[in-house]
């Protein structure tokens, strides 16, 4: 029987986080992003960025959480990163004050595909929501690729909805459409079922 849990990321997790990010992007986004972009992503460079994010977050409200599957041994299988909404969370042409101070932005929420459908994404999201509530956030936003039905389905299945904002990322001279989803942060913890 496998058990799963979520904990704050540690600096020594950065290599696994980078590995999970690459593996997930190369599977989930292979029909969304240009092949050469996915092939040229550098795991060591990503690991350095994740080390910095864990060791020196811009604020106490910036968090990186990891999902762990524990069987005969423990495996890091997913991660979530979030922080106060900034310019990256805004839609093109949206005024800086449009999102407001009580908004948190999810920058990453990934579970390695081979560990999917075991509740890790739900545990990551639930743990993140607990932190958001403690930090006083009232609303959360996340950008999802228009072609990423799995992420959109997961988020909408947990109560998120598109807020009408869209953008197109220029990825190696290819425009990739995204839409922004949002959800109210519950004021009370959801009872365990």
Automatic annotation (TrEMBL):
Matching Pfam families: Acetyltransf_1 (PF00583)
Protein name: GCN5-related N-acetyltransferase
Classification via InterPro entries: Acyl_CoA_acyltransferase, Bact_Acetyltransf, GNAT_dom
Lineage per the UniProt record: Bacteria, Bacillati, Actinomycetota, Actinomycetes, Micromonosporales
Keyword presence, Hydrolase: no
Species this chain originates from: Salinispora tropica (strain ATCC BAA-916 / DSM 44818 / JCM 13857 / NBRC 105044 / CNB-440)
Keyword Cell wall biogenesis/degradation: no
PANTHER family cross-referenced by the UniProt entry: ACETYLTRANSFERASE, AMINOALKYLPHOSPHONATE N-ACETYLTRANSFERASE-RELATED-RELATED
UniProt domain N-acetyltransferase: residue ranges: 4-182
GO molecular function, one term: acyltransferase activity, transferring groups other than amino-acyl groups
UniProt entry keywords in alphabetical sequence: Acyltransferase, Transferase
CDD domains tied to this protein: NAT_SF
């Amino acid at each position: 029987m496998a058990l799963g849990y979520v904990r704050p990321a540690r600096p020594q997790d950065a290599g696994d986080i980078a590995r999970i990010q690459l593996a997930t992007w190369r599977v989930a986004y292979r029909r969304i992003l240009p092949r050469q972009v996915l092939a040229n992503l550098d795991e060591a460079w990503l690991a350095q960025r994740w080390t910095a994010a864990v060791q020196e977050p811009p604020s106490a409200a910036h968090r990186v959480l990891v999902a762990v599957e524990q069987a005969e041994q423990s495996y890091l299988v997913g991660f979530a990163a979030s922080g106060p909404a900034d310019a990256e969370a805004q839609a093109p042409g949206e005024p800086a004050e449009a999102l407001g101070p009580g908004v948190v932005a999810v920058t990453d929420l990934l579970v390695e595909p081979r560990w999917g459908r075991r509740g890790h994404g739900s545990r990551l999201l639930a743990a993140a929501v607990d932190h958001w509530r403690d930090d006083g956030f009232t609303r959360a936003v996340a950008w999802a690729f228009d072609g990423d039905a799995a992420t959109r389905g997961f988020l909408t299945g947990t109560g998120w909805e598109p807020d009408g904002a869209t953008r197109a990322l220029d990825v190696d001279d290819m425009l990739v459409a995204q839409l922004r989803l949002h959800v109210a942060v519950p004021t009370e913890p959801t009872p365990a079922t």
